[in-house]
């Protein structure tokens, strides 16, 4: 099957992301890349656990003083929902329904932006209210590095999806761009999974001690 | 697009290499860049040995000595050994599995340019206020206290080149999983391909911890973070853990491909199939797995406690088992073979006792209580040079001679090659054997000088003389390369006459599309099988058809250049220079802009048409 070929919903292959050799390679390569990313985040998690609440003097805020679960709950819901909408988007991609795929991806992006806004507010809040900063303590460095790496991944994913949507808006689906959309969605799921761990390890475990 | 090579000017050749995505040309780039860094690391080593040749020497200052030993280690591991192995992986592995290119030719080029700019950045430190001076391990409390920008060069340079290596690893994994020729099952892959596969998996999982810890070091030094600053609640042991979680698999990333090269050489020049092929594969995978389980044996004296030390001691000793399997398999491959002592075979035979000596001292250090005596002494220096030089560098020299015809189409002189071997082999043992005893007598590693009359004088002098022998060996190899290139006597597809694997079935160097028709692989040592049946070519698995090829691209160079520029901004940001932040942002804009350009601009590649391939067949009678 050629990347440039034109399709109808009837002739569109079942797994368009893996229908060409390029697609197959990208699919596998990206999974392996996510494996490496997992190790990267595992390292940051380990560092965070080792440095949690490690502050130079008692007047610094600790995890249990800082975190507010209602905000984090909203963030979690936004991101989890965005993962679901990206699944819908891929569902329509596999059915060769370009418009609906774009629509659901747009919703994914909007939810992601909502998450990002909350995270900016959260960081700003810690900076101004509690003087909990990147440089104030080892705890601060580890916290902002872990959540910041995740946030940077969110930004990267959002830019990626927006560019894909804009670039392909006028020309519909092909076997050349189907793997690209699929990988962006895979990346988005990965970001979501990392957040589930951040929610558990940083916020929930932060509240219980 | 014509497939016929044309005579071209110098500028267009340079442009061709700057934009190439062909794995064979990228291999040559890796070989040249890695070779230059190898020479720089070698010069640093010679200066270290010159300083230590006699007691109370002041050939270099103590501060410069620290920079030299740091840069020697860092350069040799990250910028010489690994890229040189990547050169052979790039040049040979796709041919061995019967592929037309790697899975991601663009990413392959990107990996090279990231490595190159990272290495360049690191070495610019010599001219911009001093090189890093905290050892190649750069332990955090020491590296945080280091003044100037040396450690910043280390952190940013290694970060950039590390990204490149990671991409190379992913690329090779996908290539081997997805792009094998019909009939090339996993258990028919040549051992060099297998070791490339396992080493790539190690790269994939070992580099991210290094990435993470280098980010922390960068943040601590340049952006005011406190990961390793104990006064602010930090913990310096975190660096040690991450460094060695990366660092130990790193030595297997180096030695496994070396094992692969030797396995090919042993079976080729014993003219026998590799003894115990499946146990070799098993041992390779097991070494790769155990490589992640032993990092804390570098930290026995840190004080992790007897339980942790005992567990890591036992795990470390366990690695001797699969390594032993390999040693015996090589011996039994030679046994009863019809042996030809070519230059690569000489290195292979010399490798066995040299590497075993390094392995034995390794098991000695695995005994945690005894390691308290060896730790930070010249005994350690002797040990890791026995495994890295006696293993990896021997393999690189052997591989250079062995694969030179496949990469360049000419044969290195066997006569000069033997001269190189003799000097390098004798020099190597002269240099490092005596260091075991220097260490046991109490000479600490990384020491700038020593006092006379403590029993260290003779040993150090012998060691320095040995280093000079090795230098003579390396220089003779360079002369060999020049003479061979000037003579330019072209060779056929199988210049060693006993090639066993697919790469020897196609012309030297291979055509840019590698295989006109993908070969049908009918067993282990596919080309040997065909030769034994009296054929000279491989059995094709497909009719001649159009071949899809990727387009060249300048984007990998630009992406890497952007990070290189950004690194300067990040580094001088500390000095409150007004231009630093714009440079940092500008560099990142270049990098991400180039990535976006790559993402948005369609690149479908091109096709070599069937007719062109047929024509070429008539012109030159090239065999597929």
From TrEMBL, chain A:
Compartments reported by the entry: Cell membrane
Transmembrane residue ranges: 28-51, 71-91, 103-123, 143-166, 186-206
Pfam families xref list: COX3
SUPFAM superfamilies: Cytochrome c oxidase subunit III-like
Domain Heme-copper oxidase subunit III family profile: 28-207
Membrane topology category: Multi-pass membrane protein
Keywords from the named record: Cell membrane, Membrane, Transmembrane, Transmembrane helix
InterPro entries: Cyt_c/ubiquinol_Oxase_su3, Cyt_c_oxidase-like_su3, Cyt_c_oxidase_su3-like_sf, Cyt_c_oxidase_su3_a-hlx, Ubiquinol_oxase_su3_dom
Family of the protein in this entry: Belongs to the cytochrome c oxidase subunit 3 family.
Name by which UniProt lists this protein: Cytochrome c oxidase polypeptide III
Organism: Bacillus badius
Automatic annotation (TrEMBL), chain B:
Pfam families: COX1
Chief place where the protein resides: membrane
PROSITE patterns in the record: COX1 (PS50855), COX1_CUB (PS00077)
Enzyme class at the top of the EC tree: translocase
InterPro entries in the record: Cyt_c_oxase-like_su1_dom, Cyt_c_oxase-like_su1_sf, Cyt_C_Oxase_1, Cyt_c_Oxase_su1_BS, Cyt_c_oxidase_su1_bac
Reaction equation(s) it catalyzes: 4 Fe(II)-[cytochrome c] + O2 + 8 H(+)(in) = 4 Fe(III)-[cytochrome c] + 2 H2O + 4 H(+)(out)
EC number, as in UniProt: 7.1.1.9
Location in the cell: Cell membrane; Membrane
Family membership: Belongs to the heme-copper respiratory oxidase family.
Known role: Cytochrome c oxidase is the component of the respiratory chain that catalyzes the reduction of oxygen to water. Subunits 1-3 form the functional core of the enzyme complex. CO I is the catalytic subunit of the enzyme. Electrons originating in cytochrome c are transferred via the copper A center of subunit 2 and heme A of subunit 1 to the bimetallic center formed by heme A3 and copper B.
Record's protein name: Cytochrome c oxidase subunit 1
Organism: Bacillus badius
Biological classification of the source: Bacteria, Bacillati, Bacillota, Bacilli, Bacillales
């Amino acid at each position: 099957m050629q990347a440039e070929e034109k399709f109808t919903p009837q002739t569109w292959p079942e797994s368009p992301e893996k229908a060409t050799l390029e697609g197959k390679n990208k699919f596998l390569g990206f999974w392996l890349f996510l494996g490496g990313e997992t190790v990267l985040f595992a390292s940051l998690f380990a560092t965070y656990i080792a440095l949690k609440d490690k502050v130079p003097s008692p007047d610094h805020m600790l995890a249990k003083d800082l975190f507010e679960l209602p905000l984090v709950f909203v963030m979690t819901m936004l991101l989890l929902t965005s993962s679901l909408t990206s699944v819908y988007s891929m569902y329509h991609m596999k059915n060769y329904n370009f418009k609906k795929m774009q629509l659901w991806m747009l919703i994914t992006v909007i939810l992601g932006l909502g998450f990002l806004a909350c995270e900016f507010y959260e960081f700003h809040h810690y900076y101004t209210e509690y003087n909990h900063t990147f440089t104030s303590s080892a705890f601060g460095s580890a916290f902002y590095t872990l959540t910041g790496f995740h946030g940077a991944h969110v930004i990267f994913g959002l830019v990626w999806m927006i560019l894909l949507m804009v670039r392909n808006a006028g020309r519909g689906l092909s076997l050349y761009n189907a793997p690209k959309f699929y990988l962006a969605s895979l990346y988005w799921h990965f970001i979501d999974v990392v957040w589930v761990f951040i929610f558990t390890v940083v916020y929930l475990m932060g509240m219980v001690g | 697009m014509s497939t016929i090579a044309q005579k071209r000017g110098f500028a267009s050749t340079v442009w061709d290499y700057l934009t190439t995505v062909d794995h064979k040309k990228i291999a040559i780039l890796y070989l040249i860049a890695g070779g230059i860094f190898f020479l720089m690391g070698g010069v640093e080593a010679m200066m270290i040995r010159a300083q230590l040749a006699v007691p109370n020497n002041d050939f270099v200052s103590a501060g410069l000595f620290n920079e030299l030993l740091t840069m020697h280690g860092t350069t040799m591991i990250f910028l010489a050994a690994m890229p040189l192995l990547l050169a052979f992986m790039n040049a040979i592995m796709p041919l061995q599995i019967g592929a037309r290119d790697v899975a991601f030719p663009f990413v392959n080029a990107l990996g090279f340019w990231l490595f190159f700019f990272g290495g360049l950045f690191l070495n610019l430190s010599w001219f911009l206020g001093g090189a890093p001076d905290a050892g190649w391990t750069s332990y955090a409390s020491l590296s945080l206290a280091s003044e100037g920008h040396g450690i910043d060069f280390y952190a940013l340079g290694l970060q950039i080149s590390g990204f490149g290596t990671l991409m190379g690893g992913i690329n090779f994994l996908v290539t081997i999983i997805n792009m094998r020729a019909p009939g090339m099952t996993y258990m028919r892959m040549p051992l060099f391909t297998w070791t490339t596969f396992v080493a790539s998996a190690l790269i994939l999982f070992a580099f991210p911890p290094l990435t993470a810890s280098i980010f922390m070091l960068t943040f601590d030094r340049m952006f005011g973070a406190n990961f390793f600053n104990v006064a602010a609640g930090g913990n310096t042991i975190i660096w040690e853990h991450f460094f060695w979680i990366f660092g130990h698999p790193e030595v297997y990333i180096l030695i496994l491909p070396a094992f692969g090269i030797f396995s090919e050489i042993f079976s080729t020049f014993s003219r026998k199939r590799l003894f115990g092929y499946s146990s070799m594969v098993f041992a390779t995978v097991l070494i790769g797995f155990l490589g992640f389980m032993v990092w804390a044996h570098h930290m026995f004296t840190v004080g992790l406690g007897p339980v942790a030390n005992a567990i890591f001691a036992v795990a470390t000793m366990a690695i001797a088992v699969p390594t032993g399997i390999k040693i015996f398999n090589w011996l039994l491959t030679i046994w009863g073979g019809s042996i030809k002592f070519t230059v690569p075979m000489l290195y292979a035979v010399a490798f066995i006792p040299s590497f075993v000596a390094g392995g034995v001292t390794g098991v000695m250090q695995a005994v945690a209580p005894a390691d308290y005596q060896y730790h930070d002494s010249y005994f350690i220096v002797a040990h890791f040079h026995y495994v890295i030089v006696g293993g990896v560098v021997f393999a690189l020299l052997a591989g250079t001679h062995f694969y030179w015809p496949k990469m360049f189409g000419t044969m290195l002189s066997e006569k000069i090659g033997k001269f190189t071997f003799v000097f390098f082999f004798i020099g190597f043992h002269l240099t490092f054997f005596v260091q075991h005893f220097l260490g046991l007598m109490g000479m600490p590693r990384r020491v700038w000088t020593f006092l006379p009359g403590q029993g260290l004088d003779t040993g150090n002098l012998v060691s320095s003389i040995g280093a000079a022998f090795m230098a003579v060996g390396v220089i003779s190899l360079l002369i060999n390369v020049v003479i061979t290139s000037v003579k330019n006597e072209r060779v056929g597809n199988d210049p060693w006459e006993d090639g066993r694997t697919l790469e020897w079935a196609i012309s030297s160097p291979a055509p840019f599309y590698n295989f006109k028709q993908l070969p049908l692989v009918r067993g282990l040592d596919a080309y040997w099988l065909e030769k034994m049946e009296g054929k000279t070519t491989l059995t094709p698995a497909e009719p001649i058809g159009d071949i899809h090829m990727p387009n060249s691209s300048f984007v990998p160079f630009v992406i890497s250049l952007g990070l290189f520029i950004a690194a300067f901004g990040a580094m001088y940001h500390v000095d409150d220079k007004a231009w630093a932040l714009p440079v940092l942002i500008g560099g990142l804009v270049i990098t991400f802009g180039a990535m976006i350009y790559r993402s948005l601009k369609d690149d479908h590649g091109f096709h070599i048409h069937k007719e062109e391939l047929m024509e070429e067949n008539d012109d030159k009678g090239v065999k597929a």
